Here is the input.
Amino acid sequence: MAKQYVKQGQVQVVRKLLKLAIRHGFLREVPELPSIKVASRPRSMLSLKEYAAMVRTAHRLSRWGSKAPEIKASTGHRERFWVQPRHLNLPPDMAWAIRFMVNSFVRPGDLRQLKNKHVQVVRGKSVYLRMNLPQIKRHDTPMVPLRPAVQVYESALAHGQSLGFGRPDDYVFLPAETDRNYALAVLGFWFKWVMREAGVSPMDSLGRLRTLYCLRHTSIMFRLLYGQGIDMLTLARNARTSVQMIERFYASALDGEMNVDMLQSRRTQKKKD
Here is the structure.
């Protein structure tokens, strides 16, 4: 019964400590540890309709110069904001960040540290971005976003240049913020605000909270649902993850009704000359 209350992370820490003890000669072998069954819990995502509504709402709030409401959705009146006053009005960065994440597969942590020097616009037979981000989770391969990300990046770059930024070492989103943890927190604050204004539920149908990270899940799921001929390995490599992780945390949410047209499609025979 006791092992039911042991968390997987705790077992991993104990296992590492025991291996360290063996390396230093304190133990001869690792004792038997309980096996932990882990239930995969995919993150939430947005539907196409919800994604479009959030982009439109973010653009509208930015154009109108709207200010963050003083009423919290959960506990009523807000006594004070933790964000700085200059961030109570929504800049265009939020709409760009939403579109960029859904079209690039990046994690919020990638978005936080993304600098202009990490991005190259490639114009040839295809127009796309080549992103060489710092290594994260042992992945260091370049990423290739979808074509709409090119327009988003060029808009963000032009906006940054108008504010005196845009140099190689300047950040793409919220370039004025040197504290990147704070910058990411502000994006999360704006995301919840836009979601509420767009009429998008803060939880999905399974009761999972929607945070900034759900945009990465949305990005991968959109490719699985609407990408033509995309194979899992290419998608995994480009998203800096593994096929196993996609199957466990992303594709596990797929069902037949999501892609009913493809499921019921038939191959057409080539006509002979």
